[in-house]
Design the sequence.
């Protein structure tokens, strides 16, 4: 799943570790989410959305292939 996490984090001048600390996850988890190697659980996605004060849909984007299948 594509996401805007890296951009949103950079806008706030947060490191991956800064965001990881706010989410109570490892820096490696933040990196894996940003690079699309790991999709966060729904509770974690809501926590991310809350931290950035955005809707989940404004952070996590559907892949083009996924949209074409529908």
Sequence:
């Amino acid at each position: 799943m594509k996401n805007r996490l890296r951009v949103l984090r950079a806008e706030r001048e947060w490191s991956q570790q800064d965001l990881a600390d706010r989410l109570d996850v490892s820096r490696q988890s933040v990196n894996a989410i940003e690079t699309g190697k790991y999709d966060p659980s729904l509770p974690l996605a809501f926590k991310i959305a809350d931290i950035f004060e955005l809707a989940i849909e404004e952070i996590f984007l559907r892949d083009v292939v996924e949209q074409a299948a529908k």
User: Anything to note?
Assistant: Residues 2-62 form a domain with the 434 Repressor (Amino-terminal Domain) fold (CATH 1.10.260.40). The chain has six helices and two strands. Residues 42-52 form the longest helix (11 residues). The two ends are 16 Å apart (CA to CA).
